[in-house]
Amino acid sequence: MSTDTDDWAAAMAEQAIEEAKAVELDEFSNDSKPLSEEEASKLDAIMDIPVTISMEVGRSFINIRNLLQLNQGSVVELDRVAGEPLDVMVNGTLIAHGEVVVVNDKFGIRLTDVISQTERIKKLK
């Protein structure tokens, strides 16, 4: 067995041992004046807007000829190395990095680094 296989087996065993724990989020500190009824209704409207969240493992650029030749069992090489964190995107904007976890036979993402609001705003410009 190679070292890569041993490392992978060790990581999978460690992940199987760990159980996902519910994390209580800190409430935002409310240092400002209370919202008016009109402001609260506007905020409620925004909170119900759906967004698309996606996790990106990597990318690959191929030409149409190669795309049409793909079939079951084909392997597409991605631009990332194994073990590199996933990108967590909301409506196409990077908001965090994370790693894949398995909890109760379902895949999930453990956030390892959340992009600051300042950095996200810089990327929009």
Features:
about 120 residues; extended; FliN; 4 helices; about 25% strand; cell membrane; Flagellar motor switch protein FliN; four-stranded antiparallel beta sheet; FliN/MopA/SpaO
Shape: extended
Helical amount: 25-40%
> Topology as H/E string?
HHEHEEEH
**Count of DSSP strands:** 4
Q: What is the strand arrangement across the widest sheet?
A: 1-2-3-4
As a whole number of angstroms, the C-alpha radius of gyration is: 20 Å
Largest sheet: 4 strands, antiparallel
Provide the β-strand percentage band.
15-25%
Protein name: Flagellar motor switch protein FliN
Pfam family, one: FliMN_C
Main location: membrane
Membrane topology: Peripheral membrane protein
Q: Would you write up a description of this structure?
A:
The protein is 31% helix and 23% strand. The N and C termini lie far apart (49 Å). The chain has a 4-stranded antiparallel β-sheet, with no helix packed on it. It is an alpha+beta fold and 125 residues long. The model has no long low-confidence stretch (mean pLDDT 78). It is a peripheral membrane protein. One of its GO terms (biological process) is bacterial-type flagellum-dependent cell motility.
